[in-house]
Amino acid sequence: MSWPGYRWVGYGGAAALTAAATLVGLAMRSHFELVNIAMVYLLAVVAVALRFTRGPTISASALSVVAFDYFFVPPSGTFSVDDPQYLLTFAMMLGVGLVISQLATVVRAQAQAQARLALETETERIRNALLSSISHDLRTPLAVICGASSSLAERGERLGADERRALAQGIFAQARDMSELVAKVLEMTRLESGAIALQRDWAALTYAMNNLNRSMGLNDAYPFVLSAQALAKLEFVHRTIGESRSAPTTNELPQARSA
Fold it and tell me: Taking the CB of the first residue and of the last residue of the chain, which one, N or C, has fewer CB atoms within 10 A?
């Protein structure tokens, strides 16, 4: 997380877990050896390392050493040490805490890298599916335009006025559809590259539904009855996502019928 003050939450958590380990150690002092109490502090350090970053983990290690020395190492209640062997215990506790912190940082970085790689792979797969679908949708109008234009070029003089008009209208309609498709692809490219900045804001549900009706060609009299154009758009989206997805097709949509 990156919201302001979150960094200090980790240090607060380190202090809280160290205090909790100290309370547990005080309850154990009359029944267990000091080495077992030291393990309780290491457990607190592991908990901090799993939840927070390196700084709070190192702080938890240092606080654990200080609390263990003050409350449990003879003479208790002071920071002096009668037995020099406890100095080695302190060093080992601090060293283990640093190793745990480093391992947690490495594991967290590897997990983030794997998640990033999986996201990039999925994005590339969807992009390839989208390009394949777009190329398929471009072939049909191109074939119609080529066929109609060749007919006009080769035997336009022998065709009647109605036939020439029908061919010209077909060329115009297919060219318009291609222009709309290319415009949508360009808009998607601009959105993906960051050229278009999304402005998010609260909106009433009825307002959002009205915009959806207008953009997808929903029937005005029956807001949730899909028109043929909307069904075609949904089918296009379904092909883009891919057959491996379990997304519902247009035949599975409730109350979906041609307007």
Answer: N
The token pair that represents 175 in the structure block: 């060219």
Own/partner long-range contacts of 138-145 (Cβ < 8 Å, ≥24 apart): 138/178, 138/181, 140/174, 141/174, 141/175, 141/177, 141/178, 142/174, 142/178, 144/170, 144/171, 144/174, 145/170, 145/171, 145/174, 145/175, 145/178
- Summarize pLDDT for 154-176 with one digit per residue, the tens: 777 777 788 878 888 888 888 88
Encoded tokens for 148: 């109609």
Relative orientation angle of helices 228-241 and 205-216, to the nearest 10 degrees: 90
Domain range 129-193, its CATH number among 1.10.10.10, 1.10.287.130, 3.30.70.100, 3.30.565.10: 1.10.287.130
CA distance 203 to 206: 8
> Residue 232: its pLDDT value, please?
53
48 touches 13 (CB < 8 A): yes
pLDDT for 68-116, tens place per residue?
A: 989 988 888 888 888 888 888 888 888 888 888 888 888 888 998 999 9
Domain ranges of the chain: 6-116, 129-193, 205-252
Give every CB contact of residue 4 below 8 A, 6+ residues apart in sequence.
Answer: none
Task: List for the chain the helix, strand, coil content (%; round to 5).
Answer: 75, 0, 25
Residue 216 is predicted with a pLDDT of: 58
pTM summary value = 0.48
- Cα 29 to Cα 71: distance, rounded to the nearest angstrom: 10
Indicate whether 254 pLDDT > 70.
no
